[in-house]
Amino acid sequence: MSRDSERPAIDRMIAEWAQATRQGGEAGAAGYASFATEDAIFLPPDVERVEGRAAIEEVASAYTSLPGFDV
What we know:
Mean pLDDT: 92
Shape: globular
Structural class: mainly alpha
Strand order of the largest sheet: 1-2
Strand content: 5-15%
Number of strands: 2
Distance between the termini: 29 Å
Number of helices: 3
Order of helices and strands: HHEEH
C-alpha cells in the first residue's frame, strides 16, 4: 500500500475533521476532539499538557468559541 493510494482517504478525513470543528462552540469542540483517541495528548499554546479526549474537548471549547475561529 502506497502513501499515494491512501491520500484520498486521508484528505477526506481531514476535511471531515475541519468541517466538524468549524461548527464552533461546544459542537466544534466535540468535532475537534472526535478524531482524538482516548489516550491522546494535546499541547495547546500557553496551556499545560492536556490528556484524553474529554479533556481535549474541554480545552478546545475555549478555542472553538472564539469569534472567527477556523482550523
